[in-house]
Amino acid sequence: MLDLYKDSQKEFYEAICHSILDKKRISHAYFIETSTFANGKELALSFAKFLLCPNHYSDLEQCENCSLCHLVDEGVDDHIYIVEPDGMWIKKEQIEVLKDVFSTKSMDELPRIYIVYEADKLNKSAANSMLKFIEEPEEGIIAILVAENRYQILPTILSRCQIYTLIGEQEEIKEVEGDDTLCDFILSLEKRGTETICYIKDLWFSFYSSKEDMQNAFSRMEQLFLDALHYKVKDSSSISCDFYSFLCQNNTVSSLIRKLNVIRFSKEAIPYNVNLPLWMDKFIIDYVGGE
Question: Per CATH, which fold does 2-165 belong to?
Answer without folding.
Answer: Rossmann fold (3.40.50)
